[in-house]
Amino acid sequence: MQRDDSGAGTVKVTLNVSTVFPAEGGSDMKSFTSLLAWLLMAAVLAVPSFLFYNWWSNSKKQVSAEISQGPGTVQVFQPEGGAQAAQPELLPPAAAPAAQSAADSAAPAQRPPSAAAREPEPEQAAQPAAQPEAQLAAQPEAQPAAQPEADPQAAVESSTVPKPVSYYAPKRDRDPTFSPDDYKRIRDEAMQQAEAARMARNAERNKPREPGPETRVVLQGIVGNAAIINGDMYTVGQTVRGVKIVKVGADYIICDYKGKKFRKVMK
């Protein structure tokens, strides 16, 4: 750029275009391409970031609105039925209705007037389960006594008597697969066996017993080492009617019969 002040009040400006816009070279092209690439990357990342932020803010607002509505089942995903179907349903307490009805029935007879005055109104039954449980805990322990006492005998009978599995209750224990003739035959066989056993016992008891070996030997006298038995003279070692003489004493003898020894005294 050059300035010329030759004329009066006239300024001549010569602009060198090459100095303002330098000639495009390889380095300038690379920088311009890199700038375009960075801009494109920023645009690509900005779109999902904006969508994620929008979804996060909507979810946060929805959770805050559900928490502010009160206790209940929080539904993260809304059903297709619209806003009315999306509203959470309150879960009623499990044991509150039964316990409260029992307490209301027993309260007029046992509670003092001050306790009856503090009786909760029906509108309070829709409150959370923590309030009925606290009221039941605060009530006196004498309320269970208002229930009718069970009969001890009936309780024992119900516990000891087994419940019938089926409705079939025969009056007799007779096997239906046996006929009356079969039962008669079985009874006759049992009677015959009992009679045979009885007769065998009687025969064994009335059986004539074999006389003992003592009756076979009659000691009549003793002479030295010999004994007079049944009219004959016998010494030690001899046998009389199957009885062996083992020893001869002064007035007795010792005999052996089938391994059994006995003593015979002279009379």
Structural features, described:
This protein has eight helices and nine strands. The chain is α+β, with helices and mostly antiparallel strands. Strands 6-7-8-9 form a four-stranded antiparallel sheet, with no helix packed on it. The longest helix has 44 residues, at 26-69.
Concise summary:
The protein has 267 residues and is of the alpha+beta class.
Mean pLDDT: 70
| SSE arrangement, N to C | EEHHHHHHHHEEEEEEE
Spatial shape: elongated
What composes the largest sheet? 4 strands, antiparallel
CA radius of gyration: 64 Å
Q: Please identify the oligomeric state.
A: single chain
| Percent in helix | 40-55%
Strand content: 5-15%
Low-confidence segments, given as residue ranges, are 7-11, 13-24, 82-86, 90-97, 106-126, 142-146
Distance between the termini: 185 Å
**Derived structural class:** alpha+beta
Number of extended strands: 9
User: What is the helix tally?
Assistant: 8
Strand order of the largest sheet: 6-7-8-9
What is the element layout, followed by pairings?
Layout: E1 2-4, E2 12-14, H1 17-20, H2 26-69, H3 83-86, H4 96-110, H5 113-117, H6 130-138, H7 152-160, H8 180-206, E3 219-223, E4 226-229, E5 232-234, E6 239-240, E7 243-248, E8 252-257, E9 260-265
Antiparallel strand pairs: 1-2, 3-4, 4-5, 6-7, 7-8, 8-9
